[in-house]
Amino acid sequence: MANTSMEEFEALLNESLEMDTPDEGTVVKGKVIAIEAGQAIIDVGYKMEGRVELKEFAEPGEQPDVKVGDEVEVYLRAAENARGEAVISREMARREEAWDRLEKAYADDARVEGAIFGRVKGGFTVDLGGAVAFLPGSQVDVRPVRDAGPLMGLKQPFQILKMDRRRGNIVVSRRAILEESRAEQRAEVISNLTEGQAVDGVVKNITEYGAFVDLGGVDGLLHVTDMAWRRVNHPSEILSIGETVKVQVIKINKDTHRISLGMKQLQEDPWDLVGVKYPLNSVHQGRVTNITDYGAFVELEPGVEGLVHVSEMSWTKKNVHPGKIVSTSQEVDVMVLEIDGAKRRVSLGLKQTQRNPWEVFAETHPEGTVVEGEVKNITEFGLFIGLPGEIDGMVHLSDLSWDQRGEEAIQEYRKGDVVKAVVSEVDIEKERISLSIKALGGDKFADAVGGVKRGSIVTVTVTAIEDGGIEVEYEGMKSFIRRSDLSRDRSEQRPERFSVGDHVDVRVTNIDSKTRRLGLSIKAREIAEEKEAVEQFGSSDSGASLGDILGAALKRGE
């Protein structure tokens, strides 16, 4: 009987040991039986006690929350140490518990609560109720955070982005929570907005292309071109951060939740009255606001700008950059050339406000006027002479000299020479002025032969005797009479019968203005005289001889 009792007792003891003794490496329940020297003494069953530092019962930044009699879960690392006590950890128990909870939350894509408690390279550490997670710097907020101090130790929700229990890695995001709540807030605000609505907003940020305006939880973009009807070079000209402005909702993109705003739409459009205030060909004063390669923009009034194309800037400066003619902010007079209300464009002219210099020149310098100017340029076809009004006149090669070929005469001129010339033609439409240097002394040939016609009898002076004929002079103009024209009789066609200085009557057979030569003939004069005598005193058919006719003519002349 005693043996039986001993066997039963041993079986019961073994059963008790198997039931009550927990396995090492597991989480067990225990009871706080005492608190001393900054430690909690915990009974984990079967006469097993262990010690846990009180700080393991504290949340980050808080005091330990534990007292005698509390039931707590701890992690049994070892059943007995050198002092005969169980080696237990509250922190490891919390971690195991937390991992189970976090894995479920990760699977359900649910938020978890935690507190940022430390700073590490590239981000922060977060206590998720026992498990430590990494919060990258880029995931702290929707915008870069310069000072994370106010966020430290604050309990708040996080989203788990990634977790690996085997490696003990958890990555969380605070930004994802903010964006989600922000999106909900945006959706609510946007649902209350309508296109065309006027609302108040606060300027949050200013960029080169516009400003972001907070409409109460949602931002809208106020583009620089929608701030005012006039040209705005930079938004900071009319806006400042923190300023409250009234804007109109121009467009709402339901898919992207982007909102476009405008300020000028709440003001009167100056283009409504442009046609009335600026009729065609009227002249107005404006201010140069911008200069480009193709012209200059001139502001007629705030919100109304016109373009002076480079071709309409100057009568005389053709291939010059607009910046050489006008400067930014300069006040100028312009003429309205064209208005396109649909495209909101005004074409302006700068040169039209000044008289056409070719018209002025034509009025003040009629043909035949003598002008003086500097040789501006020498080309293969003539000289360009600078004239009053910043315009040029051209002397063609053929108008340089009466006596020399143009190619020879032009060699005598150099750039910068001051010369005189006669105005021969002004073509206002083609902006062309023709000048003549050779006409300065008048046209000697024209003057000499002014009263002479073909068939006229003139008296010339012999200036030279040559084998082929004689050189003669009439009113300062040289001509040559060939041997065959010296007499009707072949025997008298001898140049040597004349002497230099002789006066001879000759008949004009040709007047060539181009070569500036007179065609002269003694022979033609003699034939003409004979013909005239025959007509007056008889005919060749009457039988009278030439001698008889001439004799009669001579007697009559007596």
Automatic annotation (TrEMBL):
- Which residue windows are coiled coil? none
Q: Which residues cross the membrane?
A: none
Quote a single Gene Ontology cellular component term: cytosolic small ribosomal subunit
Question: Which residue range or ranges hold the S1 motif domain?
Answer: 25-91, 109-175, 196-264, 281-351, 368-438, 455-523
Sorted keywords for this record are:
Repeat, Ribonucleoprotein, Ribosomal protein, RNA-binding
Instruction: Name the Gene Ontology molecular function terms of this record.
Output: mRNA binding; structural constituent of ribosome
Q: Output the SMART domains linked to this UniProt entry.
A: S1
Q: Does the keyword Disulfide bond apply?
A: no
| GO terms under biological process | translation
Keyword Ribonucleoprotein assigned to the entry: answer is: yes
Per its database record, what is this protein's job?
Answer: Binds mRNA; thus facilitating recognition of the initiation point. It is needed to translate mRNA with a short Shine-Dalgarno (SD) purine-rich sequence.
The entry's family comment says: Belongs to the bacterial ribosomal protein bS1 family.
The protein depicted here goes by the name 30S ribosomal protein S1
Q: Which organism is it from?
A: Thetidibacter halocola
Q: Which gene encodes it?
A: rpsA
